[in-house]
Automatic annotation (TrEMBL):
PANTHER family documented for this protein: METALLOPROTEASE PMBA
GO cellular-component term (any): cytosol
Entry similarity comment: Belongs to the peptidase U62 family.
An individual GO BP term: proteolysis
InterPro entries: Metalloprtase-TldD/E_C (IPR045569), Metalloprtase-TldD/E_cen_dom (IPR045570), Metalloprtase-TldD/E_N (IPR002510), PmbA (IPR047657), TldD/PmbA_N (IPR035068), TldD/PmbA_sf (IPR036059)
Positions of the Metalloprotease TldD/E N-terminal domain: 24-88
Protein name: TldD/PmbA family protein
Length: 449
């Protein structure tokens, strides 16, 4: 990491204050990334990119101005700071504007290593070899896999620097590396496309190209011959990837700004039991090697682990500094941003904590139901609490996965769905920065024929 960038961020803040800003902040990012896609053993697309930029936020008489640039020339930065102050002077005043309160600032937590030198030093051809290997494995898995929608690999390296007039200054660097495969299978009458990917901060934690390819291929092939089922109310099981999506949907309703505006179905439920005791959801900014782990948020507030739902009880909502002031509470260290944007409420590593039951046991207890492996659309309305999404998966008969199912809709009210989670698996799996195990709903409406 470059100490010059940290020094630059501090100097920007000092210049802004000298030019009349009551408070100022500089958020600087530097990064590089590379991605490759292959088709038929040849490179289809190879992308390499570098980026750097700084976002400058100033406050003048309760007014905020924000600008950003990728030009670090001293003259250009001076001009930009002047523009930020001019924008602030023209904006509407709001007494809630300002940097985080000093009581919310302090020592950054030790989040462990986020940077893997092996990822940063990966040879340029590793992506090509990994992607070609995945394509070969997928095609050899089953003759019914005729083509690939996409298959590829990549890595990224990033650095973040922050300084503010509140006395905050810090930096961290991180890496990420990933593999993905999306095969298309056909039995002559229908096509089935599926997908699998893995992403980690450290190369040693990444799944092998062979495993990623086999998982993707198996998920596509097992859906061949899929048909609708009759409309009925039955137990429904979400595999870990679908459960992770459900958790992400639920957490959108825990956005403090949405709650303040009464545009969340959870707005009046803080402290209430919204799920069974075996349901615990956390926003964990401290998780070891998590893709969304960092020592501080986009405003320099130390990150933390926040229990959102603890043993079924709704414990907290998520806030940045501005929305916390609106709600007369304190930030949870969830300001998310890039250098081109103002801070807004985001999430860190979201986790539905694992239970003690195996997924096989959870399936075995279902005499008749649906095991969901893919969903379509964005049918979760976190304002009204309505949930309705297209689904594909496998039908369960007498505790066993049997025939493939497609073109059905799974529907319910989110409040009821939470209360009806009657089993949580032990198979915690992360899909990006969101982790969840298998979950079972006691009963949902499955609409088909």
């Amino acid at each position: 990491m470059s100490t010059n960038y940290e020094t630059l961020a501090k100097k920007i803040v000092q210049r802004a204050q000298k030019k009349g800003a009551k408070e100022a902040e500089a958020f600087l990012q530097v990064g590089r990334s590379a991605d490759v896609r292959v088709r038929d053993g040849e490179i289809e697309d190879l992308t390499q990119a570098t980026s750097k930029g700084v976002g400058i936020r100033v406050f003048v008489k309760n007014r905020v101005g924000f600008v950003w640039t990728s030009d670090f020339d001293n003259g250009a930065l001076d001009t930009l700071i002047d523009r930020a102050i001019a924008l602030a002077e023209m904006s509407a005043p709001n007494p809630l504007n300002g940097l985080p309160d000093r009581k919310d600032l302090g020592k950054f937590p030790d989040v462990g290593e986020l940077f893997d030198k092996r990822v940063a030093d990966l040879p340029p051809d590793w992506k090509i070899k990994a992607a070609i290997e995945m394509e070969k494995v997928v095609r050899a898995f089953d003759p019914r896999i005729k083509t690939m929608d996409s298959v590829g690999a990549g890595e990224a390296v990033s650095e973040v620097y922050l300084a503010s007039s509140a006395g905050v200054h810090g930096s961290y660097e991180g890496t990420s590396v990933y593999l993905y495969a999306s095969p298309v299978a056909t039995d002559g009458t229908q096509l089935q496309t599926s997908y699998w990917y893995d992403a980690k901060r450290f190369f040693e934690d990444l799944d092998t190209p062979e495993n990623v390819a086999k998982k993707a291929a198996a998920r596509a092939v097992r859906l061949l011959g899929a048909k609708k089922v009759k409309s009925q109310k039955v137990p429904v099981i979400f595999d870990p990837t679908m459960a992770a999506g459900f958790v992400a949907n639920i957490t959108r309703a825990m956005n403090g700004d949405a709650v303040f505006k009464k545009s969340s179905f959870l707005a009046n439920k803080l402290g209430q039991k919204i799920a069974p005791a075996h349901v615990t959801i956390v926003d964990d900014g401290l998780r070891s090697r998590g893709l969304a782990t960092s020592p501080f948020d986009g405003e320099g507030v130390p990150t933390r682990k926040t229990s959102l739902v603890e043993n079924g009880v709704l414990k907290a909502f998520l806030y940045d500094a501005f929305t916390a002031r609106k709600a007369k509470t304190r930030t949870t260290g969830n300001a998310a941003r890039g250098y081109q944007s103002l801070p807004a409420i985001g999430v860190n590593n979201l986790v539905l904590e694992a239970g003690s039951r195996s997924p096989e046991e959870i399936i075995r207890e279902v005499p008749n139901g649906l095991y969901v492996t893919a969903m379509l659309g964005h049918g979760a309305n976190t304002v009204t609490g309505e949930y309705s999404r297209g689904a594909n998966g496998l039908w369960i008969e007498n505790g066993e996965l049997t025939r493939p199912v497609q073109e059905v809709t799974v529907a319910g009210a989110l409040t009821d769905m939470l209360q009806n989670i009657d089993a949580v698996g032990s198979d915690l799996h992360f899909y990006g920065s969101t982790g969840a195990p298998t979950i079972r709903f006691k009963e949902l409406t499955v609409s088909g024929e």
